[in-house]
Design brief:
By secondary structure, the protein is an alpha+beta fold. The chain has two domains: 88 residues, no CATH class; 67 residues. Helix content is 41%, strand content 18%. A three-stranded antiparallel β-sheet has the order 1-6-3, covered by helices on one side. Strands 2-5-4 form a three-stranded antiparallel β-sheet, with no helix packed on it. A hairpin with a 2-residue loop joins strand 4 and strand 5. Helix 1 packs across helix 3, helix 2 crosses helix 3 and helix 3 packs antiparallel against helix 4. The longest helix has 23 residues. The chain starts with a helix and ends with a helix.
Length: 190
């Protein structure tokens, strides 16, 4: 069952022994801290690894105004963009030289295909990612709400372990990458 941002924050608050919230706009210390820390923590965890559930592709067309130097064209990034994975010519998502500059990609191509990580809705978070997000959020909320640095340190350690497990589970959701060109194999076969 997908959880909302409020439910994720309430679960993190319970994890540190604080009073859960029912609305992020409540006039409580817990809601104020959750409102400030949740989007930062969520986006940081989404961007820390190329999670399969965050990957997207988009065809981008250039801006009318070219960049000042180094590349011929500038392409605006999608509004849900968190991190660029690769850029390629139309129909292929890799293979072009590019640079991310602010909210734009600079490149020499006429049109590009962008492979990127996107910000996803809470309803799209898979079951293996939710414990990681809740634990990391609890760690972030622990010091401002409980002033317990020891408990916060333990929660950060637990979040690191949950990050490893979540990355392992996520990595098993695609065909393993094949080594296409490895000179030692070629030398051995000749």
């Amino acid at each position: 069952m997908p959880l909302t941002a409020v439910e994720l924050c309430a679960t993190a608050l319970v994890k540190i022994g604080a009073r859960p919230i029912s609305d992020l706009e409540e006039e409580t210390t817990e809601a104020t801290c959750a409102r400030r820390f949740y989007p930062i923590t969520r986006d940081a965890l989404l961007a820390v690894h190329p999670w399969s559930f965050t990957l997207a592709q988009a065809e981008l067309l250039p801006d009318a105004e070219p960049p000042l130097a180094d590349f011929v064209r500038s392409f605006p990034l999608p509004p849900d963009h968190l991190r660029t994975i690769s850029v390629g010519p139309r129909g292929r998502s890799r293979g072009l030289a590019y640079r991310v500059q602010g909210a734009r990609i600079l490149c020499d191509a006429d049109a590009i295909t962008l492979a990127y990580q996107r910000r996803v809705a809470e309803s799209e978070l898979p079951a293996f990612f939710v414990p990681l997000l809740v634990t990391r959020l609890a760690a972030e909320l622990c010091i401002p709400l409980t002033e317990s640095t020891g408990r916060a340190a333990e929660l950060f350690r637990l979040a690191e372990a949950e990050l490893k497990l979540a990355r392992l589970i996520d990595s098993q959701q695609a065909t393993p990458q094949r080594v296409d060109d490895f000179t030692l194999i070629g030398a051995r076969l000749s």
